[in-house]
Structure formats: structure tokens, C-alpha cells
Write a structure and sequence with these properties.
The chain is of the alpha+beta class. The protein contains twelve helices and five strands. The protein is about 50% helix and about 5% strand. Strand 2 and strand 3 (about 220-225) form a beta hairpin. Helix 6 (about 80-100) runs antiparallel to helix 7 (about 110-130) and helix 6 (about 80-100) packs parallel to helix 9 (about 145-175).
């Protein structure tokens, strides 16, 4: 997540997004416009989390039907396991260094880099301590070499994130005579992590949690962390979180960012797929349409057709029971 703050300073995300937005009044499907965005009355008792309402991995929504009507839970997979651990590590490392920065310190002795890397190693060890037992449940089990490579990738992630955080903090210490480290850290890394949002009238379950909200200055950017291949419908999920925030806080959320974390044969993670974008009415209305379509399917209990092209199903965790 520190990468987001670094990219903001290097590329001026605020300026770029503001130029793309042009006219904020042109966004109509705001979360606070409840008469425009609430679920139809016949669907008002049905609610789902954002990932089930806004994401469309299956073209016919059979994954949702199998999950919610047939009660078949999505089986764990190696990609989903990796995504869960990367997601948790990114949130935990920033939370840990934030807590470290909030302690009373002798500025002459502070060593954030050393702390962050040591804490990161502990987090990785705790997260992967049961990797063999957990992956033994998967239908397609990763080899020992694949598991070792993944753990090494987590260390690469900690290395880069901790170096960015410590460099920012060291620069601040080096250029200020009088410094409050906690307030400076909050200013530089203006993140809110996993806050709970309640927007039942939008068809969403209670206490939904976006991965993070980035708030440089007076701007609100809704953020999600994704590993693997990005899909266009991931932006629809960000739009759903933005509308939920607007419903609860009555504050406009015009921008979103998908922090895409990948790994290749390099000593650092690859963030190239990360994208900041305007949460336009296109994504907002796409969420509303998907929401109504899926909730209607659940209400009527009608089984969707199978996907004609099985080639689209090769990565689906429901492929064996669909």
C-alpha cells in the first residue's frame, strides 16, 4: 500500500484524476440519491456482499446460484490462498509500522526500516506456518517449489513496502527540526484500512469492508487490492464500495484505485497493473444492473444455464460441481 503514496507523489494522481473527472456534477448515481439507487421494493429483503453482487466471473451467474441457492461453498484454490495472504500482509505491515510510529521515540535512535523488515518476517512466518496443511485441501496442490517461491515473493513484498515507508519517514526526519512522527506518518500515508460500511438499501450486507481508503488532502479514493489478472468488473466492485461510502457519509467518492500486486522474476513485486480511475456513472449503473439481475435470480430461484464454452470455465472453482 505504501506504493500508492509513492506513486501519488511521483505522478500526481490527484491532478490526473481531477482532469479526467471534468464535471463531478455529471455523476448522478450517488449513494445518497437513495431513491435513484436503492433496490426495487420486491428485492429489498435480499442482500449480498460486494464480491458476489458486483463481480461477474461466471457469464451466466451459475457460481452465485450454486453458492446461495444450492449451498455449495466455493472450494479453496492455490490462487485464492495466495491472494488472501498478500492482501493480509499488505494491510498488516502498514498497520504495524503505523503503530510503531505512534510510540514515543528518541528520533536519534529510530530505525523504521529495521523494525518494518523484522515485523514483516514475523507476519510472513505466522501467515504461512500452516501452508502445507492448508494447501493439502486443494484439488490442484502446489509443489514444494511453488510454495517456496510464493514465500520468497512475500519477502520481496515486505522489502519494497518497508523501504518505501522508511524512506518517506527518514526524509521527513531529515528535513524538519521539530517533528511529530505520528502526525507526519498519518499525513504521508493517509490511509483508512478496512472500515465498516452499512448500506442495506443498496442491497449490500452489513459491515462491508473496502480494503482501504486513501485520503490525500480533501480527496477520497476508494481502494481495493487484487492479485492475478485484473478484470474490468473489479472497477464495478470499487464503485459499489464508493456508493456505500456516499450513502453513509454523504461525501462524494469520485475516484478509485485497484492496487494490483503481481510477481515475476524480479527482486520486487510488480505493480504495473495498478490503475487509478474515475468512478463514473458507467461503473455505478453497471453495479445497479448486476445487483438487480442477481437478486432477481435468487428471489425466483431459477437455475441459470451452463456456460456454452467450457473454455471460459477452466479457472472456475465450481467447475467440478457445475
Amino acid at each position: 500500500m505504501a506504493y500508492v503514496a509513492f506513486r501519488d507523489i511521483r505522478e500526481n494522481l490527484y491532478g490526473k484524476l481531477k482532469r479526467q473527472l471534468k464535471d463531478p456534477e455529471g455523476i448522478v448515481a450517488r449513494g445518497w440519491n437513495i431513491d435513484e439507487v436503492k433496490t426495487p421494493s420486491e428485492l429489498s429483503g435480499l442482500r449480498l456482499p460486494v464480491n458476489l453482487l458486483a463481480y461477474k466471473y461466471c457469464p451466466t451467474n451459475r457460481d452465485l446460484y450454486l453458492n446461495k441457492v444450492k449451498g455449495i461453498r466455493q472450494p479453496p484454490t492455490w490462487p485464492s490462498y495466495q491472494g488472501r495472504l498478500v492482501h493480509g500482509l499488505m494491510l498488516d505491515i502498514l498497520k504495524s509500522v503505523r503503530n510503531y510510529a505512534s510510540r514515543p521515540h528518541n528520533i536519534a535512535k529510530i530505525d523504521l526500516l529495521k523494525y518494518a523488515q523484522k515485523r514483516g518476517r514475523t507476519l510472513i512466518e505466522n501467515a504461512t506456518i500452516n501452508i502445507d496443511q492448508e494447501t493439502a485441501k486443494f484439488k490442484l496442490r502446489p509443489s514444494q517449489a511453488k510454495k517456496k517461491e510464493f514465500v520468497n515473493n512475500l519477502h520481496r513484498l515486505v522489502r519494497m513496502e518497508s523501504e518505501i515507508v522508511s524512506a518517506f519517514v527518514d526524509y521527513t526526519i531529515a528535513t524538519n527540526e521539530d517533528i511529530n512522527l505520528e502526525s507526519e506518518f498519518s499525513r504521508i500515508f493517509a490511509f483508512q484500512q478496512e472500515i465498516c460500511l452499512n448500506a442495506g438499501p443498496l442491497g449490500l450486507t452489513p459491515s462491508i469492508k473496502p480494503d482501504f481508503i486513501y485520503k490525500p488532502g480533501d480527496m477520497v479514493i476508494m481502494g481495493e487490492i487484487k492479485t492475478g489478472e485484473l478484470k474490468e468488473f473489479h472497477k464495478i466492485g470499487v464503485a459499489a464500495y464508493a456508493m456505500a461510502y456516499e450513502y453513509e457519509e454523504e461525501v462524494p467518492v469520485n475516484f478509485g484505485i485497484i492496487l494490483n500486486v503481481a510477481f515475476r522474476n524480479r527482486n520486487v513485486p510488480i505493480y504495473k497493473g495498478t490503475e487509478a480511475f474515475v468512478i463514473s456513472d458507467e461503473y455505478r449503473k453497471a453495479f445497479l444492473n448486476l445487483r438487480d439481475q442477481k437478486l432477481n435470480m435468487l428471489k425466483d430461484g431459477i437455475e441459470p444455464e451452463r456456460v456454452p464454452d467450457k473454455g471460459q470455465c477452466k479457472d472456475c472453482p465450481y467447475i467440478d460441481c457445475c
